[in-house]
Amino acid sequence: MPRRNLLLALGSSLGAFFSGAASADAASKAQDPAWQLGEADWKKRLSPAAYKVLRQEGTERPFSSPLNGEKRPGTFVCAGCALPLFSSKAKYESGTGWPSFWQPLPKGIATKLDFKLIVPRTEYHCSRCGGHQGHVFDDGPKPSGKRYCNNGVALSFKPG
Question: Which of the following is catalytic: 78, 81, 129, 149?
Fold first, then answer.
């Protein structure tokens, strides 16, 4: 792995650890009233790991998601509500340890500023249920130059 990518992965992991990601603020409010569920309902729908990321803005360990190696044609959808977020055509290997994409699908995500690491970052979440997905950075490939760095546990993959 290139040194730059190793440092990015290490820095993100340490940042998540020291920022108290396990007890972070709740996810963004659902834009769709049908998905404004209570904590107990979300806990019934999601695995503990998915709940921590999607509803508590946690971060999974890098290189822990099977979706890192997913290369089939298809769509990556929100693990909370199944809204399509990314096409497999926009996925690329960033070397950071998280599934990465250079472009989201239209109307799939919404963003907000995140100051958990003191330096502002752009967080993105599912535009329907508000579930935390990851952060977007300006070090991705062309044509967008963006890296949408996603928690794998916040996604499901639909082949096709």
Answer: 149
